[in-house]
Amino acid sequence: MATNYLATRTGSAGKGAGGKHAAYISGLDRNADKTEVQAVIDKNIPASVAKDGLAFFQKADELERANGRSYRSLIIAIPREATDKTAWAQTFTDDLLKDKHAYRLAIHDKGDGNPHAHLMFSERGLKEGQTAKDFFSRKNPKPTYATSKKESADWLKNAKALYLTHVQKVAPDFVPTPKGEPKIGPKLKNASAAFEAKRADRANTVHGIRDSEKSL
User: Fold this and answer.
1) Concatenated DSSP letters for 95-161?
2) Which has the closest alpha carbon to 174: 63, 105, 50, 77?
3) 28-43, pLDDT tens digit by residue?
4) CA dihedral (91, 202, 168, 163) positive or negative
5) 133-184: per-residue pLDDT in tens?
């Protein structure tokens, strides 16, 4: 059964948030026990800035302005109907970012029915050949959705609409709940086994999403 969940967060520069988050989603360093990490994909990382996504977001922590942010992140529920969950997540990511931003994408799957992806990307546009200092400066300005609350809300709304189209490519009959996380529903007396199985399935998804968010 497909789910409909996509949420965004941002990380402040100067506090090591980008490097810590990149390590967390990748199962590195103190997160090496995260056996649910199935794949880690770096794309559009400018060679003049960093060798990989971890180093890139560490540079962002160091060089973004002190009251700015080093990354934007998304938690993305992957539909269980997707045969290749890594390919599904990367296709959605590339459709969302249009190859205009450096990103790290990590696929998590514990085998508990809650496959999901963690995407983190730089809001600064992709520019090759710049020094790291120039890349994270006003010479490479951020889009207006990164500085305007209204445009940020519009960006997220559009991202969720695009996400739904990708979910429905593998689950054509899926209809999302009105908003937020999937509704678990009440416990009913004398409920059928089928009802209880569906309720348990939804509860598993919701708790998995909440656990992912607590770890960030």
Assistant:
1) HHHTT-S-EEEEEE--SSS--EEEEEE-SSPP-TT--HHHHTSTTSPPPGGGT-HHHHHHHHHHHHH
2) 77
3) 988 787 789 999 999 9
4) negative
5) 999 998 999 988 888 889 999 999 999 999 999 999 999 988 876 555 556 6
